[in-house]
Write a structure and sequence with these properties.
Rossmann fold; 14% strand
Length: 294
């Protein structure tokens, strides 16, 4: 018996890449999976693979950027499997440009899929879970969001993507703080793995290619999926409000912004005096990790 026996999940963007890996790994642990993707043939192929291996899965093609249509994903899940315990927000896109060349369409397209996409299905799921909690039902629910090193550190040529992923990290902290009272945890995964998005860059494709000698596949997406499978299990219920990086066999918790000791004179600073305070602060600071691409 797997660690997700009896649990039900919606996974967005699960027709390929990380999402498909999450679906296969979670189904292998006994989870019933709703494979959400706007590419229906791709989603069906993942479902066929899971069902062929003895698992339970169905296709859902709801548009995660539409609040009204995303409700249908939750409705279908309840109709098919009778309950919902997990939402894994995985779907993403790229519209990479340097900031000076970025268009409004580039910005809006990425914000819609990443940031709004993380809101829509989760909102409907939370309404369901809150209703259960208010009726006295014991809720043990999970939201898994997907951020990126681009959002935590910045990434040259990806201002829209970095801003959306940073927003997702902050959203995760808020969800954890607000939703625990209903029996809901919220965590965000920061994956480093081989996907269609990462291998679209030639140098990344070369670095992340599957080893031909059968040795450990460091960049296999399933390495990330195992971490998610544990987080959404009963054992993961004590972990919430965390940003967790997963790459190969390495798992770590990412630290967020922290307020330093600071400089406090207990009185008003004249504008010309701020420079000295800033010099003192900068001399004491622990520098942030470098922006990707610098």
């Amino acid at each position: 018996m797997g660690i997700l026996e009896g649990r039900v999940a919606i996974i967005t963007g699960a027709g390929g890449g990380l999402g498909a890996a999450h679906a296969r790994v979670m189904a292998g642990e006994g989870c019933a999976v709703v494979v959400n993707d706007i590419n229906e043939p791709a989603a069906q192929a993942v479902v066929d693979e899971i069902v062929g291996s003895g698992g339970r899965a169905v296709v859902n093609t709801s548009d995660i950027t539409s609040y009204d249509d995303s409700l249908n994903a939750v409705k279908q899940t309840l109709e098919e499997f009778g309950d919902l315990h997990i939402v894994v927000n995985n779907a993403g896109n790229n519209r990479d440009r340097m900031f000076a060349s970025m268009t409004e369409d580039d910005w809006d397209a990425v914000m819609a899929v990443h940031l709004k996409g993380h809101f829509c299905i989760s909102s409907h799921a939370v309404h369901y879970w809150r209703g259960q909690s208010k009726q006295g039902v014991a809720v043990d629910a999970r939201i898994i969001n997907t951020t990126s090193n681009a959002g935590l550190q910045g990434s040259i040529g990806q201002s829209n993507y970095a801003a959306a992923k940073a927003g997702i990290a902050a959203l995760t902290l808020n969800q954890a703080a607000e939703l625990g009272r209903y029996g809901i945890t919220a965590n965000s995964i920061c994956p480093v793995a081989r996907t269609g998005m990462t291998t679209a860059v030639p140098e990344m494709a070369e670095r992340m290619k599957r080893p031909e000698d059968g040795s450990f596949d460091h960049f296999a997406p399933e390495n990330v999926s195992s971490v998610i499978a544990w987080l959404v299990s009963a054992a993961g219920g004590k972990v919430t409000g965390r940003i967790i990086e997963a790459e190969g066999g390495r798992i770590c918790i990412c630290d967020g912004w922290r307020t330093t000791e600071g400089v406090d004179r207990g009185d008003h600073w004249a504008p010309a005096e701020i420079g000295g305070a800033m010099e003192e602060l900068l001399a004491k600071e622990v520098p942030a990790q470098k922006v990707w691409g610098t």
